[in-house]
Amino acid sequence: MGLITIDESRCRRCGCCARACPVGIIALGEGFPITGFPTTVEKIEKGCITCGHCVTACPMAALSHVRMKPEECAPLEPDWRLTPRQLEQLVKGRRSVRNFRPEPLDPDVIATLLDIVRYAPTGMNSQSVSWKVILDEQEVQWLSLAVVEWLRTLDGQEMHGGIRGMLKAWEMGRDPILRKAPGLVIAYGQAEDTMASSSATIALATLDLAALSFGLGACWAGFLHQAALSSPGVATALALPPGHHMCGGMMIGYPEFEYSRIPTRNPARVIWG
Ligand SMILES: Cc1cc2nc3c(=O)[nH]c(=O)nc-3n(C[C@H](O)[C@H](O)[C@H](O)COP(=O)(O)O)c2cc1C
Known about the structure:
The protein has 273 residues and is of the alpha+beta class. The chain has two domains: 4-72, Alpha-Beta Plaits, CATH 3.30.70; 88-253, NADH Oxidase (3-Layer(aba) Sandwich). It contains nine helices and eight strands. The longest helix has 16 residues, at 137-152. It is elongated. Flavin mononucleotide is lined by residues 95-96, 98, 219-223.
């Protein structure tokens, strides 16, 4: 069986499948107007990244991929796009949330979020981002403690004022590392996967926005990430599978309060070519 199968009674030979294929392995027959049905260029078939663009670009559901059939691909709702105004409000209204209500998180809600986030782009459609979810405030605190213990080992030069301040805050019962969050979502990938980090960052940024629709708020766990990459103790405390490392993480929970205004930001610095 070939990589793609065409239902010739449906195919209009519009060529969308061939144009949508990012690796150019679909060709139409010769001539103009196009007379042939789409076929794959066999020699380069193995370059297929199973992104499903050929299946989902076809307006007639005429193309079936050996690993993805049109009936497996949900039709998009007609009004799926946000208006520019809605999108602007969403992006500008998102804030890093560092104050959480002490409310437990429902694992089903986080699972639903991650089910959405798996559609974020990944390098070569590798879909290689893996997740570790901690929904126990005490466990999150233990990770903060592991980071604090690592910070205490830093030498004079590394121990700048900011870190000293964080250690002081910790000693006063505050948690400047993971903000007493009720939940933590860690994205991890294979240590040798050069694209894992970018894919995970994009997935986390998507999670940050998606969380808003569930009434949740998130904040990048940058200190934990830095510690996980620098401290064997913190990496051990994270207990990720062998050969994998943390690519980023977010504290997550229900925000204690809402923001009612949009803070100012620098104008975009752009070189127009
Ligand atoms: C890579 C990265 C790491 C971050 N790490 C932390 C962190 O460890 N703790 C924290 O409170 N905020 C962290 N932040 C949040 C930033 O401080 C925040 O995005 C910035 O102040 C702007 O605020 P806003 O996200 O509400 O617009 C991080 C953000 C990024 C992008």
